[in-house]
Amino acid sequence: MNLNIVFSGDEIVPQHQTMTPEQRIDKLFSFSVLDTLDEAVFTRMAEDLSVFLNVRGVLISFMNAQKEWVRVCSHLPEGDSKALVVLCDYIVQAGQPVVVNDVQQTQRYMMPLPNDLQDVRSFLGMPLSTPGGHRLGAILAVCTEPRAFTARDIDIIQRFSDRVLSELEQRLLRAEFEQINEDLQTIMMNSPSGYVLLDAQEQIIGLNPAAERITGVLWQQGEDFNYKALKKDPAVSSSRESPVYSRWVGQGWFQVTRISMPRKDRTLLVFEDITDHVEHQIYLQDIAFKDHVTATENRHAFYAYLRSRFRSGPFAVAFLDLDHFKQVNDTYGHQAGDEVLKEVAQRIKTAVRSQDRVYRLAGDEFTVILGGDVSDETLQDISRRILKVMQAPFQLDVHQLHVGVSIGITRSISGEGVDDLLKRADRLMYEVKQGGKFNFRLG
To answer: Which of 62-71, 80-89, 129-138 has the lowest mean pLDDT?
Structure first.
């Protein structure tokens, strides 16, 4: 039956239906109330409403696509369920409160009431209408005797209707929240970025596989998160605000972003793998600061480090120039000369200490920046070790070559600049050349 009705005074008149049955079914499915068992929350509402209105029973119903009903009943008369479902259908179509004070006076309502209502003599119905006009079902309160329902009764059932709709909205929000969480979990589990979710006590309450892959740290849910587990790499960090961390196992670098969540007791840590970026920067730095022949640091690196050393206390600089190296290039070619330069760089590194740094300036010129103990005795010992490692012949295919070195070595002086220091070291080296080569001079 498709009669649209509404109560107005003592008369029920047709009213325009604002929502199609299909729209109502779609809305009900969004609330996840169809084809479900009776739920305690609605049962409690029905029982509470029967007490407030002092009626025989209350029914809360929702209609599905097959005109079947999901019902929540409280103390309804026996054998009236089908008839009451028909009444609920009338109420849904009416779209407004429906009041029948005595079903035996149906001529007053212009409404074909079911014949098998049995013990029901009066009822009050209220549609479950959303603010958007979606009629999802009805609330029906029935009495076993005639009853003159008041405006207060209508207000009470309207309030319960609002409670039902509020519960449905909360249900929808919970379903959406669960779907969002499920989608978020899917994204996190498949994301190339690492995620670690912390609670207010900085305990781990969630993480994804990428967090372990990027950091090399094996975390477990429930344990305290500790930043000390992350290994900061100052060699590639450009700022304190955005430090770079290196992976514990294997080569890799990453950065961490701390994000405050809408819930104040949640914090999300995002781990971004920047290994490709760091490796590219290292490659560019190698091009700029490494000598491609000897693999030692080059002239640019030497001047950059030398300027910084003036702010770090006393140090010394050794200026080295190879003896008779031009003959190697002239006799055996530049490729042979490059092989000799590689061997020279390695020999010098074995003669100096771990804190000393070896550079190739250009051609056959090398320098060493020496830190720590730079006393006369120490600098003389280092110079003698360099001369000793250079005494051994250089093996080039079937040829044995002898290449010497002249060394000028000097300590930094407070207040002087880079150029003054280098000029002094170069002058001392030149004095060795003039005095017969293959020696050192300290000054």
So the answer is: 62-71
